[in-house]
Amino acid sequence: MDALIDLFANTQAALYEGVMQPIAFALGLGNRLEDVFDGTGWLLVGLIQIAVMLLVIGPLQRWRPVEAVTDTHAVHTDVIYTLIHRLGVFRVALFLGVEPVLDTLMGELRVHGVGTFHLEDLWPGVTDGPFTSFVIYLVVFDFVNYWLHRAQHQWHWWWALHAVHHSQRQMTQWTDNRNHLLDDLIGAVIWVCVAQLIGIAPTQFVAVVAMTQLFENFQHANLRVSFGKWGERLWVSPRFHRLHHAVGLGHESVPQLAVRGEATEEGATLGGYNFGVLLPWWDVIFGTANFEPRFDPTGIRDQVEAGVDYGEGFWSQQQLGIKRFIHALGFSAEP
């Protein structure tokens, strides 16, 4: 673990000194070099992730696909989402618009005695090593992710945004980042707040985020792979997560059509199965696991059965998501 951390740190420093620092000075950001250095780390993570996607997950998809890709335009749109997130555009927006507010809020909390503690300190002597503490934080954030995911499917206003993700009918490794930007913003703010409250070190936080994202790419892959009876209960597989995206099954359990103000059809509901991001343990514990050995078509019921438009390109998906969101909050008659 230490060797990997050192390798990453050295590469980050070289990229910062050789590329990012000169760009920062050219743009008049000489007073923000510490932030530019942190951003260089996220950029490096994104480049590594994209390389793994192209060199490892991509060939796996071609080796054993679930279905033939017939809508390449939809996949290209997902690539745009991935590049926005993994090459730092979304991170820059967070840095400029959100992180200063969160830093101020956390500073005020500390002034009033609400201090940050380090979660691994609860088990002194057991969690001293970086690998052990990393595993603890990974499990904690995965637990948080499970409940965030449940909320995205249970609260109508949040589903109005999250539906962008589920509207992809040609699911591939690029689909993970196909999200409404407001949906991503809400999730990112919660993650940053949790990170501040439990005291995870910045390098550990980057590692947890990087690993979570990369495995999410794998789980969304157009890949006919199951981990078997026991493996499926230890780690989320592409089959396990694909069922979560299955039409009329994976993401249904409270009225869905009420989001659009229409009568609820029997079975057309929000909720569903297999919300775990990395670990299926939470689905097993809380009764949302489905281990049926099936590879269903993906999409949303009203999209498939009633032709509801969720948008074809990036901007149309974002605009329609905002309209559904406003409607779900009760501020408009039509989504």
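That was protein one. Protein two is written in the same sequence-then-structure order:
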Amino acid sequence: MPRTTLLRGANGAHHFGADAPNEVWITHVTKFRIPAGKAYLSPIVDCFDGMPISWSISCSPDAEMANSSLLGACSQLGEGEHPIVHSDCGCHYRWPGWIGICSEYGLRRSMSRKGSSPDNARAEGLSRRLKVEFFYGCDWTGVTMERFMELLDEYLVWYRDEKIKSDLGYRSPMQYRKDLGLAA
């Protein structure tokens, strides 16, 4: 049986690892502010390889946004797969809809301690990379919210399918899974 690791380090922060896809997922809501308004991203990231397996982008950080990213990830589950899904303590992850989806798909919920961002550092790490590589340093003047959300979605597809990662043998998460026979 694959090994799933949810350990606390010396500083008390969670450290996540997984030997196979769909054992441990992490999520976090990230805000982007441009002159046209605010956009929110809710990704579901697989701890096996850091692949964003589903995401929703919205102008409002509401239940529909968080729930739709979780449902998108659940649609990719195989028979008998019931991952742990770790989040911060945000209201998105305590609403009845989210809890109902977790129950329906047999997901095991895990939450960070209140006010302890290191508990969800891996999810926040993706947000940090997105902002450094995609967002910061760009002039978003004149870009509509619709166009911004399209560009963010395109970046996430590129990140999943093409961005190489040294810890995956200089392959993208998707290529890594294909090479292991885990994706078509």
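Confidence is low (pLDDT under 50) at residues 1-13. Keep this in mind for the problem set.
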